[in-house]
What does this fold into?
Amino acid sequence: MSTSNDRLVDHNVLRTNQAFIIGLLILAFVLDAPLLVALVAAVMLLDSAVPGTSLFKAVYLRLLKPQGWVKPDLRRDNPEPHRFAQTVGGTVLLAALLLFALGLPVLGWSLAWLVVALAALNLFAGICVGCLMYYALHRLGVRGFDRSPIAEA
It folds into this structure.
């Protein structure tokens, strides 16, 4: 059974993650560096598979938060939809890498920019499209999508 304490998510960890995703993917595009896209995909997918292993989260926890540059923003929330959103983003970046390997860089960069746009939508407007997808799958009764949105207090 879940307690209210395990339903707390630091949204500044999420924002830091999104800022790194946006920044590194834009840098990858400017430098025409698909290997940097691969790095971002690897960080996203590794943390999705093994929560707590994110390089971007480590920067927040070991530098930004201890220095007081970014304060925690703990909210009652489910971490699962955010992990799902990250898995979707990482998978889209894997598809971009496949397109690069197939000699279709315009399509590959289009997918990378899609991830940038969705991360920016979340960072700047607080709209997590992957979370919305998760909750839609939950409403449809898809196995594995077990969490309902947490009601506002």
Remarks:
- The radius of gyration is 16 Å.
- The chain has a mean pLDDT of 93.
